[in-house]
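ARCHIVE RECORD
Type: protein–small molecule complex
Small molecule: 2-acetamido-2-deoxy-beta-D-glucopyranose
Source of inputs: curated submission
Record status: active
Notes field left blank by submitter.
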Amino acid sequence: MVSSLVVSVTFTLSKTFHLDITIWFPSEFSAIRVLDLSYNNFSGDIPASFGRFPQLKVLKLVSNLFSGIVPSFLGNLSALRNLELGYNPFKEGPLPWQLGNLSKLETLYLSNANLIGSIPDSIGNLVSLKNLDLSSNYLSGEIPKSISGLKNVEQIELFNNNLQGELPESLGNLTSLLRMDLGQNNLTGKLPHTIGSLCLTSLRLNENLFYGEIPSSLALNPNLRHLALFINNFTGKLPQHLGLNSDLEDFDVSNNELTGELPKHLCQRKKLQSLVIFNNKFSGTLPAQFGECHSLTVISMENNELSGEVPSSFWIHPGFETLKMQYNRFSGSISNSISNAKRLAKLQLQGNNFSGMLPIGICELDRLMKFDVSKNLLTGEVPACITRLKKLEFLRLQENMFTGPIPSNFSFWHELTELNLSYNQFSGTIPSQLSYLPDLTYLDLSMNSLTGNVPPELVNLELSEFNAYGNKLYGEVPYVFSNPVFLSGLRGNPGLCSPVIKEFPPCPKQRPYSLIAVIIFAACFLIFMGSVLWFLKRKFIFFNGKSYKPSYKTTNFQIVGFSEEDIVPFLTRENLIGSGSSGQVYKVNLKNGEFVAAKKLWGGTRKLDTESVFKSEIEILGRIRHANIVKLLFSCSADDDLMVLVYEYMEKGSLGDVLHVNKCEELREWSTRFNIAVGAAQGLAYLHHDCVPPILHRDVKSNNILLDQDFSPYVADFGLAKTLKHEEGGIGAMSRIAGSYGYIAPEYGYTLKVTEKGDVYSFGVVLMELITGKRPNDPSLGDNMDIVKWITETAFSSAEDHPIDVAHIIDPMLNLGICDYEEIENVLNVALLCTTSFPMNRPSMRRVVELLKEHKLARHN
Ligand SMILES: *[C@@H]1O[C@H](CO)[C@@H](O)[C@H](O)[C@H]1NC(C)=O
Ligand SMILES: *[C@@H]1O[C@H](CO)[C@@H](O)[C@H](O)[C@H]1NC(C)=O
Ligand SMILES: *[C@@H]1O[C@H](CO)[C@@H](O)[C@H](O)[C@H]1NC(C)=O
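STRUCTURE (tokenized, with ligand):
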């Protein structure tokens, strides 16, 4: 005969296991003492045969699939010490009153057991009970007064039921009680005074309907460590001695109607870790004692009426992880000592009266994720080092009086999703580096004094909200901003204009009158000053033998036989041969009789752009050499804004001019056009595939392909070109939308991730120009048409089995031979490939060269 049996079975059956458990445990097992079948998938009723195990001391069926009711015969198992049936899908039913007969029961665990009805009075008979857990059921009714019979009870868990009524006074008799959780019920009334005579370490009455004052007797309990009274209707002051007599660790009275000052002693024992008092009406200042409470990790005191200066010692808490003080009336400055709160992840101070500067110590809070100081009276510049906070996700500085520029070195802000700087006095330009923030979703710069152009790079961001309303931005809105997310955010900047986006006034072709007046005046002034200087210079030479010379910075990229003196004085009207987006081009005759082209970059308001163009040209063109890329010979810049780039002179000018303006005779020959296509393709292929790192031109167009006297093509104008640097995140991460209307690949409408396939697209457009003789946005193409759409539609309108009908689209100016048609068709096919809307499907430039040449060979063999 088995006298004692411990069963602990773990079946690992994938299906619900229907077991007639009585077969396993027949009534002959009457001597069984411990039966533990927890954490299996037993289902059905709890077998009635269990009722015939009179010696059973432990019955554990936790977490099975028993689906009958909790049987009353369990009340017969008079030897039971542990009855643990929690986490079973029992049929809804009451807690059997018969269980009250289990006078030896120490643990009754029936959490999550679908119990309904009220707690039977008989519960009070469980004189041996230490642990009562009926949490997370549907128990209703009042807590029976008889509960005072649980003389030995240490823990009562009744949370998450529907219990009602007031707490019985008799609770005070439970002198062994250490932990009580009655949270998440509908309990009401005032807390009985007797609650103070309990030796509780943990009292949780959260989420009920209690009201009245929190009894001061609570503060006398020497064991109290955890107190949760949140979400009730408590009023009045907190007991002033709270924390004085016990090691208070967690304190949560949030969401009540408490008033008065915070008790001074809350952290008397230096054990307090979380102080949660938000959504009350506490007033007065922060007790100075809080400054020494280094155990604190969480403070949440938002939405109160606390006021006064925050003692500088308060900020020092090295363990702070969360500090929420928003929407109070705190004043004074935020002390630099906050730099000691190294673990701080959330710092929310918005809606107070904090003043002074943002302390530089902020920058040392490496873990900061959420930082909000909006709606205060903060002034001065935001410390630039704030961009070192690499965990930052939210930065909200709006509605202060911050001045100075927006910090711009964002290399560490990888996580930032929201940046709100609105309603301040930030000045300077919008840093284009914002486009490097990979996760930025909300960007609000509205109502500041920002100036300059809209950085086109911003299009690179995948923003849900962009707002730069009410600034002083000016200049042309980049074409790619047609996305409504951006457009609407650019309103309220009267200086913005656009030739294409209807929302904005067109950009003035002529400078406004007043500006002209200013320029004329400035010019006169300069001439006057110039003559004075000249005069002085002459005098100096006369008297001192020394000559005045502005300081030029020059670089030679080739061995050249000239210097700035041979160039700068000749940048005059009569030598002007062209004018482009980046500057004016002059033809300069050198002493040796040769010509060079000198480009003088625009100065003045366009200076920022100009500098980057200048740098870009020098950095890129200065180091590459290719037969189809224009040669930069020399650069020179002077203090006074002058920036000059000197190139080989290209006799025939740009392809754009030759093709569309001059209608040059030589271009009647298809072979001339074809050679230009192949040469330019080779130049671009060299940039993409032979340069390390690769270079993207980003402004490929017929105007940027120059022709020498033999009509050999040279890719020029690298002002927008970029080197693809891999440390910047591979292909797309660097970006600046570039290019000219009509040549920009469609994907730049929704992204600014720039790849070489953007150049391929633009080159395809150039091929189409060569074939048709039309400009990419030629008015003859009709409204809303560009050359790519037009060709695609015209070419494919012919029957499917028929080869593309090119005759309609070929430039009528061309003198064509029989073989030319076939070659034009081939080039057209390449052009169509290059302008496929899906970038992936476009060939590489190297492949384009191959495709073009293959055919050429075929023709000549
Ligand atoms: C119980 O059943 C569930 C669902 O079928 C299954 O995921 C789990 O592994 C089973 N547990 C045991 C102990 O067999
Ligand atoms: C169980 O308790 C009730 C009173 O609560 C009593 O009348 C009854 O006799 C008890 N039964 C047993 C078997 O002890
Ligand atoms: C930024 O702050 C302003 C002013 O407080 C507010 O109106 C706006 O909604 C905020 N922007 C975002 C994106 O949250």
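CURATOR ANNOTATION: The longest strand covers residues 583-589.
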